[in-house]
């Protein structure tokens, strides 16, 4: 993503991320999740899956799409972020044995 796109995404998450998080019943870690996403957007967290996670963030805060239609995306985002918080080496799409990269 270009710097201006990242800045817009950061603003969207800062302003709308609470709506994404409040839809989640497991709220004990919402502050941690929020700050982890901000750090990922800012580039403070290096992760091979950054682009796919940022895509989940983008679609989660895209309120032009009906909120009910993005529930699966929001759930996936929260699952991925929680797993990454536990273990940054966790992969959403594990590499196949012998695969390059």
Account of the 3D structure:
The chain has helices at about 5-20, 30-40, 50-60, 70-85. The mean pLDDT is about 90. The chain is about 60% helix and about 0% strand. With about 100 residues, the chain is mostly helical.
Note the main attributes of this structure.
mainly alpha, globular, single chain, 4 helices, 101 residues
Order of helices and strands: HHHH
Distance between the termini: 20 Å
- How much of the sequence is in beta strands? under 5%
Integer-rounded radius of gyration = 14 Å
Largest sheet: none
What is the 3D shape?
globular
Helix percentage: 55-70%
- Which runs of at least 5 residues are low in confidence (pLDDT < 50)? none
Count of DSSP helices?
4
The computed structural class is: mainly alpha
Give the integer mean of the pLDDT values: 90
**Oligomeric organization of the protein chains:** single chain
Number of strands: 0
Quick summary of this structure?
The chain is an all-alpha fold and 101 residues long. The chain contains 4 helices and no strands.
Topology:
Elements: H1 3-22, H2 30-42, H3 50-60, H4 71-86
Helix pairs in contact: 1-2, 1-3, 3-4
């Amino acid at each position: 993503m270009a710097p201006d796109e990242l800045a817009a995404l950061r603003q969207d998450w800062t302003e709308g991320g609470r709506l994404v998080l409040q839809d989640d019943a497991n709220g004990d870690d919402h502050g941690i999740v929020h700050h982890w996403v901000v750090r990922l957007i800012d580039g403070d967290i290096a992760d091979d899956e950054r682009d796919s996670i940022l895509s989940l963030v983008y679609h989660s805060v895209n309120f032009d799409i009906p909120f009910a239609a993005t529930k699966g995306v929001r759930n996936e985002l929260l699952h991925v972020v929680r797993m990454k918080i536990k273990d940054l080496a966790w992969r959403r799409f594990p590499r196949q044995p012998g695969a390059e990269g």
